TrEMBL record:
Gene Ontology MF annotations: cyclic-guanylate-specific phosphodiesterase activity
Alphabetical keyword list: Membrane, Transmembrane, Transmembrane helix
Domain EAL positions: 23-274
Taxonomy of the source species: Bacteria, Bacillati, Bacillota, Bacilli, Bacillales
Species whose genome carries this gene: Planococcus maitriensis
Protein name: GGDEF-domain containing protein
Amino acid sequence: AKSTGKENYEFFSPELLDSSIRKQEITAALQQALVNGEFSVHYQPQVELLSGRVIGFEALLRWNSALGAVPPAEFIPVAEECGAIHPIGEWVLREACRQLDAWRREGRPDIHVSVNVSAKQFLDPEFAEKVARVLNETNVPAGCVEIEITESVMIDLDTAAGLVEELQEIGVKLAIDDFGTGYSSLNAVKNIQIDTLKIDKSLVDEVLGSDRSMAILATIIELGKNLGAEVVVEGLETIEQVTLMRQYEVIGQGYYFSRPLPADKAARVWDKYLEQ
Ligand code: C2E
Ligand code: CA
Ligand code: CA
Ligand code: CA
């Protein structure tokens, strides 16, 4: 496959999102994708800015389909709609855990993997059971796995709170993704105990040129810390952004450190951080 990053997808254009033909093609192709082995997982490091230590990797799904490389932003919504997200999501979780176990067996330092979970998956009454099964199969300690959800799972707070509790009993960590982009971010963190707050790239993009954006970002970081959560700042691309963020003692993620990469290449990036 020649696509190495988001900008290299040749078959994606926003207009096509609305095309029902395209959607049908994706729906059909998704049915075969798992058995054909068309999915892979890329890993992007999360770096503790003060120490320069890699403390985890986010698992990001890649699909090299008969239609070409289709980005997750295009196929995940379709997979949610047709139900394929359930087996696919379980596959990603298992694959990420399998990889973490392989790294642990190599004697690598303790880290976590963060796995994105759609609201559809999360709200599946059997989700926690599936998570427990995968942890068992792969031998990975629950505390090394972080589930990334968005505030969209909080629409029905009572249901969400129960499911969160089940996951907390298992011992996996919970992250709120894309924090600050929705309408009810505060509601999401008010009602459940979260381990990690991931601040969306859009909030970071403007801070260098805008005092007001910086004030908002600094306040959200403070909020996360006051709630006892780790704070991850996403989408760091430049040394200027990293230098600025270092003062806030957060965890950074973004192209500045590494693009999401296949496991072997991600491990080589990790090695470089270990040598420093
Ligand atoms: P996300 O969870 O917010 O993931 C971060 C996205 O930003 C990823 O895009 C990542 O490649 C990209 N990114 C990371 N650093 C930078 C940076 O410095 N600059 C820029 N411009 N982008 C950066 P990707 O891999 O295309 O994934 C897009 C979205 O698709 C994810 O957003 C997530 O919502 C969803 N997704 C990806 N994998 C999965 C999965 O296994 N399951 C589910 N349910 N959703 C997934
Ligand atoms: Ca994520
Ligand atoms: Ca995110
Ligand atoms: Ca996102």
